[in-house]
Amino acid sequence: MSENQEIINPVQKDDTAQNVSRNTNRHLILYNDDNNSFDYVISCLIEVCDHDIVQAEQCTFITHFKGKCDIKKGDYKSLKPLKESLVGKGLRVTID
Questions:
Q1: Of 57, 73, 64, nearest to 92 (Cα)?
Q2: What sign has the CA pseudo-torsion 69, 72, 73, 77?
Q3: Which residues pair with residue 31 across a beta bridge?
Q4: How many domains does the chain have?
Q5: Distance between CA 1 and CA 42 in Å, rounded?
Q6: pLDDT per residue over 35-83, tens digit each?
Q7: pTM for this model (two decimals)
Q8: Those residues with Cβ within 8 angstroms of residue 52's Cβ, 6 or more apart along the chain or in another chain
Q9: CA 85 to CA 73: how far, in whole Å?
Q10: 63 within 8 A of 24, measured Cβ to Cβ
Q11: CATH of the domain at 88
């Protein structure tokens, strides 16, 4: 019986590993608004998301012209505090 358990356990571990890898496919999406200036959004992305100046500028321009931009990728647990901080600064952000 313990041989069967040893065979079953690796399968369960593989399923868990696959679920963890699926969770890393989340996206933090910034949406365009007419309330915040370019400079303000850029400074928020640098402060909260740890973007460099060029990346923050590019994300801000993409958001302005396309209506939204994927500003960060990761699992839900790591993106949630970033989302809450950006929303607290008055930006429209979701996790997809």
A1: 64
A2: negative
A3: 68, 92
A4: 1
A5: 60
A6: 999 999 999 999 999 999 999 999 999 999 999 999 999 999 999 999 9
A7: 0.75
A8: 46
A9: 16
A10: no
A11: 3.30.1390.10
